[in-house]
């Protein structure tokens, strides 16, 4: 199975840029989407006719904001939205599909926002999300994919010194949140396979950042340690356009 994640920055917008054809070319078996920016019925309408895929969606209460979805060629055993914390489950940020041999979680981690005004919410989220993943992993192996809104090391962004503790996604609190995920046994599959390589998954729309490759690696395929033996070929598809993020993927074999 090819597992993939993509922050589409608006499902209705990316459909107009050839999203269905791009998905057919990429060929994922399971595709987690973040930042759909649409209600569930709007997501269904936008993706109507996606041949071969079953759609699952989780939207925010606030219209046109956040939201996650999963397109899957395989029928899941169960589907669940949220992490089970009411105060944190208002924005459609987590969707889980259970398959026979693993859990597939897609997440759109909260951005700390300009001026870092949402950093306290982000820190609360990071702690609760780690507890959620730990509980799932006790049941069966886990793949967690999505826009985790953090560059974990200086290798993961083009200008680390200028952004450290100033810009959302590269504060010490956010870095520590990702470190705790990894210390709990959730492996950054791409970095493990490419320990020194510089490659990004998000670029600002401003100033020709993508053309200049002034980017950040914000999108991850995290794998619980006991799932590692089942995964391979972690990849960042930075040749794929349509969003300010590009897809990331890995292969799963039972």
What does it look like?
This protein is an alpha+beta fold and 254 residues long. The protein has one domain: Deoxyribonuclease I, Chain A (4-Layer Sandwich). The chain has helices spanning 11-15, 19-26, 40-46, 119-139, 160-163, 172-183, 189-193, 209-212, and strands at 2-7, 30-34, 54-58, 68-72, 78-81, 94-98, 103-108, 142-147, 186-188, 202-203, 215-216, 219-224, 231-236, 248-252. The chain has a six-stranded mixed β-sheet with strand order 3-4-2-1-14-13. A hairpin with a 4-residue loop joins strand 6 (94-98) and strand 7. Helix 4 packs parallel to helix 6. It is globular, with a radius of gyration of 17 Å. The relative contact order is 0.16. The mean pLDDT is 97.
Number of domains: 1
- Spatial sequence of strands, sheet with the most strands: 3-4-2-1-14-13
Task: Find the count of extended strands (DSSP E, 2+ residues).
Answer: 14
| Rough outline | globular
Give the helices and strands as they follow along the chain.
EHHEHEEEEEHEHHEHEHEEEE
Helix content: 25-40%
Distance from first to last alpha carbon:
9 Å
The CATH topology is given as Deoxyribonuclease I, Chain A
| Unreliable parts | none
């Amino acid at each position: 199975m090819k597992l993939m994640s993509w922050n589409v920055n608006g499902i209705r917008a990316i459909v107009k840029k050839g999203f269905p054809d791009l998905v057919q070319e990429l060929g994922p078996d399971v595709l987690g989407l973040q930042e759909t920016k649409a209600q569930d019925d709007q997501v269904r309408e936008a993706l109507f006719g996606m041949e071969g895929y079953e759609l699952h969606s989780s939207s925010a209460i606030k219209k046109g904001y956040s939201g996650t979805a999963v397109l899957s060629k395989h029928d899941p055993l169960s589907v669940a939205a949220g992490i089970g914390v009411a105060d944190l489950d208002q924005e459609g940020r987590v969707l889980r599909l259970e398959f026979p041999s693993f859990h597939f979680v897609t997440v759109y981690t909260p951005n700390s926002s300009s001026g870092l005004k949402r950093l306290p919410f982000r820190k609360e989220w990071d702690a609760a999300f780690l507890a959620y993943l730990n509980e799932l992993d006790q049941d069966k192996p886990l793949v967690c994919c999505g826009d985790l809104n953090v560059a974990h090391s200086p290798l993961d962004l083009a200008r680390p010194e200028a952004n450290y503790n100033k810009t959302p996604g590269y504060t010490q609190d956010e870095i520590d949140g990702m470190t705790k995920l990894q210390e709990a046994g959730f492996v950054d599959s791409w970095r493990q396979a490419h320990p020194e390589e510089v490659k990004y998954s998000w670029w600002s729309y401003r100033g020709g950042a993508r053309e200049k490759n002034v980017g950040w690696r914000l999108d991850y395929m995290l794998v619980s340690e006991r799932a590692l033996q089942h995964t391979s070929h972690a990849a960042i598809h930075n040749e794929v356009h349509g969003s300010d993020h590009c897809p990331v993927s890995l292969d799963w074999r039972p």
